[in-house]
């Protein structure tokens, strides 16, 4: 292996598959893409599940919260494992373990059992942290924002495709003669099997870093790699980490909430059929094909000219526009207007996702996994808080969206006043002395 092939790439050629960097890039976004089929595969089928299990609005809200609550802790722990155990082993193990509750959720025949399965399945959401970690170490700082955004965006695209495809898989089983109460259970076996296959592929065809796996690196290589001890404390001591924690809660947190509720919202408020509601909800996720990448690309260009300060201001602007868009969406009185406004705020939301993780790799190079984990957990904290609005029996879905829009605007103000300029990196020894 020559020296160049062991270095982070300075260009992103999405049509290239040769080399460990690009092989890892394509496998990591693909794995994240299919993780959404397991994570949110139940969402577009909730109308059927609601009738089958006799779920109330509050119980559906609890299920939505459960689907993202476990991810909060999982993302922090997974980020730490990336720094120490390595992303290759971490991702392979996560895919294999998470496939179990995904394939067996069909065994649930009560609200309580369904809630526990939903909680267990939520762990797969931590896959995002590994995807962002892996692209961060495989690409040079000049292009890392773009690489992170493209990988994250294409992976998040799974959230939209899931809303479109899972009803079709469900319909396939119904067409084979199964009753709806059995068809939704059988449909969830499909993403579980796919994740098991990806676990094997990820372990076999990726490396922790361009220079090799953590357990293969020399002492000198380890010293220059992102692997470090005490990384969680390092990340937690930096206020910029928590500003990004809030920002990601206001963009990705709302994205996963919308992925969970969109099909049901369009179905119940506007009378859309299960298939139509799934397609409309899928259009929201489908924008990840380009919108998140656009956020990373613009952030890299702004960063090259105005530094981290410019990236921070860009993120604040995108969040503010997202908040306005959600508030307007909440007031829409027709399906057509709702869809138009949804596509509008989705553009700013997904660009904000990309802009957030264009900043993350620059907070502390020695704690990329832990910073990524904490910020990623922020996304799920935002989703949990939003979930409480949707489970309330006194607040309509439209009112919940209005409150969310106002909250996102408040976070934009916090991000706008935060100083993101690069400071001296906090080290393990400094953490120990603190």
UniProtKB/TrEMBL annotation:
The highest taxon in the source lineage is Bacteria
Do you know which PROSITE patterns this protein is assigned to?
MFS
Compartmental location: Cell membrane; Membrane
State the similarity comment: Belongs to the major facilitator superfamily. Nitrate/nitrite porter (TC 2.A.1.8) family.
InterPro entries on file: MFS (IPR011701), MFS_dom (IPR020846), MFS_trans_sf (IPR036259), NO3_transporter (IPR044772), NO3_transporter_NarK/NarU-like (IPR004737)
Q: Where are the transmembrane segments?
A: 20-40, 60-78, 90-109, 115-133, 154-178, 184-203, 242-266, 272-291, 312-330, 336-360, 367-388, 400-420
* SUPFAM superfamilies documented for this protein: MFS general substrate transporter (SSF103473)
Q: What is this protein called?
A: Nitrate/nitrite transporter
Q: What is the native source organism of this protein?
A: Nibrella saemangeumensis
Topological type in the membrane? Multi-pass membrane protein
Q: Does the keyword Translocase apply?
A: no
Chief location of this protein? membrane
Q: Which residues form the Major facilitator superfamily (MFS) profile domain?
A: 24-427
The alphabetical list of record keywords is:
Cell membrane, Membrane, Nitrate assimilation, Transmembrane, Transmembrane helix, Transport
């Amino acid at each position: 292996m020559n020296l160049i092939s062991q270095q982070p790439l300075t260009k992103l050629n999405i049509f290239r598959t040769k080399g460990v960097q690009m092989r890892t890039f394509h496998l990591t976004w693909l794995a994240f893409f299919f993780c959404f089929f397991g994570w949110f595969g139940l969402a577009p089928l909730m109308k059927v599940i609601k009738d089958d299990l006799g779920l109330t609005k509050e119980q559906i809200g609890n299920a939505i919260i459960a689907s993202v609550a476990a991810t909060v802790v999982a993302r922090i722990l997974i980020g730490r494992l990336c720094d120490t155990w390595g992303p290759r082993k971490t991702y392979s193990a996560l895919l294999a373990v998470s496939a179990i509750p995904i394939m067996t959720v069909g065994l649930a025949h009560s609200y309580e059992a369904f809630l526990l399965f939903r909680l267990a399945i939520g762990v797969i959401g931590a896959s995002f942290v590994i995807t962002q970690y892996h692209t961060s170490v495989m690409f040079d700082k000049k292009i890392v924002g773009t690489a992170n955004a493209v990988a994250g965006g294409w992976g998040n695209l799974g959230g939209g495709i899931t809303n479109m495809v899972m009803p079709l898989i469900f319909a396939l089983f119904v067409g084979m003669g199964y009753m709806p109460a059995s068809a939704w259970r059988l449909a969830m076996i499909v993403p579980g099997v796919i994740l098991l296959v990806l676990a094997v592929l990820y372990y076999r065809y990726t490396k922790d870093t361009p220079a090799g796996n953590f357990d293969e690196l020399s002492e000198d290589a380890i010293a220059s790699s992102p692997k470090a001890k005490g990384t969680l404390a390092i990340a937690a001591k930096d206020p910029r980490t928590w500003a990004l924690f809030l920002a990601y809660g206001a963009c990705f947190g709302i994205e996963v909430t919308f992925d969970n509720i969109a099909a049901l919202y369009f179905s119940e408020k506007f009378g859309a059929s299960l298939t139509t509601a799934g397609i409309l909800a899928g259009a929201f996720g489908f924008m990840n094909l380009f919108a998140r990448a656009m956020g990373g690309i613009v952030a890299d260009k702004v960063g090259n000219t105005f530094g981290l300060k410019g990236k921070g201001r860009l993120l604040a602007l995108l969040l503010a526009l997202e908040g306005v868009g959600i508030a307007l969406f909440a007031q829409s009185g027709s399906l057509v207007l709702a869809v138009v406004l949804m596509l509008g705020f989705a553009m700013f939301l997904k660009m904000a996702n990309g802009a957030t993780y264009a900043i993350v790799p620059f907070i502390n190079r020695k704690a990329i996994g832990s910073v990524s984990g904490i910020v990623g957990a922020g996304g799920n904290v935002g989703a949990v808080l939003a979930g409480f609005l949707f489970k309330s029996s006194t607040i309509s879905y439209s009112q919940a969206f209005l409150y969310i829009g106002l909250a996102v605007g408040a976070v934009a103000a916090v991000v706008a006043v935060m100083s993101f300029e690069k400071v001296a990196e906090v080290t393990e020894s400094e953490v120990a002395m603190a």
